[in-house]
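Mods, move this if it's the wrong board.
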Amino acid sequence: MLDPRLIKESFEAVEPVADKVAGYFYARLFVENPGVREMFPPYMDIQRDRLLASGISVSRVKFDTFGDIRY
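Not the wrong board. Structure tokens:
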């Protein structure tokens, strides 16, 4: 089960160094899975920004609203 408080607190802690965290994430991803590198653009600036922006957005969502989503 997801702990919304833990997710929110984790992203709040990461936000000040978000660029470094994203850079580390992609570096690990590409070192451990070199075949996926070709799926990403040569310059990763925009991709890094998108990764952290999406994570921060998710951390700010009220998780109790997910039960109300209809498909």
